[in-house]
Specification:
It holds the Pfam family CMD. Keywords: Oxidoreductase, Peroxidase. InterPro entries: AhpD-like, CMD-like. This protein has 195 residues and is mainly α. It folds into 2 domains: 1-57, no CATH class; 59-186, AhpD-like. It is built from 7 helices and no strands. It has helices at 14-27, 32-37, 41-57, 63-77, 80-92, 114-127, 135-169. It starts with 13 loop residues before the first helix and ends in a 26-residue tail after the last helix.
Length: 195
């Protein structure tokens, strides 16, 4: 149970209920972080708009590579909710989620492409304290993805650092997306992060 309890649908106002309906339609259930953040309606609406806008802004880096980098951040920071949700997104993107169990070996594993290795290494460098990104690393990313791609990766990795740290701090835990019924949603219903 989160440190701050979520708002039940029956207790939510009309706007929050409408957002819950959208989330339920998209993900099969309302993600628990939504319900917790609903305790602060203005922050909830700001976060929802931001997530949708950030999702739509990504065009330079293939979505599976972004999702893998985001997943790595969640895994490194130990956010069980983010790992759970990220696993579902990867599954519905048609990726082999079994390889996520071995992401620590991404540098040498033949299951990861060069682009994926670059993105995951960047996620690692951005997630360490202090940040350990190098000029050479960014130069290599620019060669591979261009300036817009580097900005997309940087933004999404930074955003996941915020999510994972926030959800972990509030003790929001996995919800069964990666292994439960929600993971069995038809692929057409899962179109992106949105959480």
């Amino acid at each position: 149970m989160p440190r701050i309890p979520g708002v039940a649908t029956k207790d939510a106002g009309p706007l929050i209920r409408a957002c819950y309906w959208f989330a339920r339609r998209r993900f099969g259930v309302v993600p628990e972080p939504f319900t917790v953040l609903a305790r602060h309606r203005k922050l909830f609406m700001a976060a929802a708009r931001h997530e949708l806008a950030a999702e739509k802004a990504n065009e330079a880096v293939p979505k599976p590579i972004l999702e893998l980098a985001v997943f790595r951040v969640a895994q490194r920071l130990g956010c069980s909710w983010c790992v759970d949700f990220g696993t579902m997104l990867q599954k519905h993107a048609g990726l082999d989620i079994e390889r996520l169990r071995h992401i620590d070996d991404y540098r040498t594993s033949p299951t990861y492409t060069d682009q994926e290795r670059l993105a995951v290494a960047y996620a690692d460098a951005m997630t360490t304290t202090p940040v350990s990104v190098t000029d050479e690393q960014v130069a290599r990313l620019r060669e591979e993805f261009g300036d817009e791609g580097v900005l997309e990766l940087t933004y999404q990795i930074g955003l996941e650092n915020m999510r994972a740290r926030m959800y972990s701090s509030l003790d929001i835990r996995d919800q069964g997306f990666g292994s439960g019924d929600a993971c069995r949603l038809p692929e057409a219903e899962i179109t992106g992060r949105g959480a």
